[in-house]
Amino acid sequence: MKLSSPQHIAPQDAENRKAVKPVICYNPSTLPTVDVAAHKQWRQTAQKVNEICIAPRSAGFIEVPAGAYFRILSTEGPQVGDLNVWNAHNLDERFYSGKTRALYGTHLSTGDRLWSSFPHMRPMATIIDDTLDWYGFDAFGGSVHDVIGTRCDPYTGRLLSGDDYHYCCHSNLTRGLAEYRGLTLEAAEAVVHDVLNVFMCTGFTRDTGQYFMKASPVRPGDYLEFVADIDLLVGLSACPGGDCSSEHSSDTANCYPLVIEVWDPGADVRQEFTPSQPNEYSGTHGRS
Ligand SMILES: [Zn+2]
Fold first, then answer.
1. Which residues surround ligand 1, an ion (CB under 5 A)?
2. Residue 48: exposure state from Cβ atoms within 10 A (0-12, 13-18, ≥19)
3. How many CB atoms lie within 10 A of CB 139?
4. DSSP 3-state assignment of 230?
């Protein structure tokens, strides 16, 4: 933990240095845009073709073809979900939460896209609807659907509490993916990755910059909906933290199921849809 007071005297021009105005690192207006309005129209005539219900403290998996929609739905009570997304044909291509955060900010909503890992770095899914978009940022600096947390996991739990807890999101996704795809636990664990924290309400404290969570504002009926930009395997863990109002690596919180629905706009519409293409960087890194 950081020492509470600095160990070095500030230079004479410290105030000037601190007064320099920040610039936004990445201008999102230069990224390829998505016609959210068109997707909302196609979505209206789409048919529900698949659905899974994910029990608390477990993970569920579902495939979504490029051009189809998937909706993550709160059903019985406030519950957050830890989302992993893979290329359905190559699990090494997976959601890159850090780069997505750098492009859009700490929390995602309608119009933001989930980008994939290097060397692919392309949109995997795009948010087309978010019933919690009214929340914005609260007085504490908190907001919903973050890409700042990693996922609750048994390693950190062990360090902090000394106990082995097996139903953290990392373990739920690892165990579930191994079963779903017939992988060893080791192979599954290697491709489980940092998440989009669906419905979770989080931020950084203004004074110390520490990661905080608070009770999620999600209620039954709320949803977050995406279009798949490539063929996807989607994995979601119903976090043992429930609404994440107190703790998240134990069996003490009230937890509820989460549902994922897949909606197909029809083969004709999907044929018109152009899946996103891998990044065009040469990959040579300066070597000829
Ligand atoms: Zn969790």
1. 82, 152, 169, 239
2. exposed
3. 6
4. coil
Domain assignment of residue 107, yes or no: yes
Place of tokens 């519950």: 79
Instruction: Tell me the C-alpha distance between 233 and 94, whole Å.
Output: 10
Domain, as residue range, for 247: 52-225+240-272
Q: Which two tokens stand for residue 207?
A: 């004074």
Distance of CA 113 to the CA centre of its chain: 10
Q: What is the mean pLDDT of each run of 10 residues along the chain (288 residues)?
A: 88 97 89 91 95 97 97 96 98 98 97 97 98 97 96 93 93 98 98 98 94 96 98 97 81 91 93 91 93
Per-residue model confidence (pLDDT) at position 249: 67
**How many structural domains compose the chain?**
1
- H or E segment at 202? strand 196-204
Residue 45 belongs to some domain of the structure: no
Q: Is 285 among the domain residues? A: no
**236: CA distance to ligand 1 center in Å?**
10
Where on the phi/psi map is residue 278: left (φ > 0), alpha (ψ -120 to 50), or beta?
Answer: beta
Q: How far is the CA of 81 from the centre of ligand 1 (A)?
A: 7
CA of 130 to the centre of ligand 1 (A): 21
Alpha-carbon span 163 to 154, nearest angstrom: 8
CB 196, CB 114: distance < 8 Å = yes
| pTM: predicted TM-score of the whole model, two decimal places | 0.95
Q: What is the pLDDT of residue 69?
A: 98
Give SS3 for 92. strand
Q: Is 36 within a domain? A: no
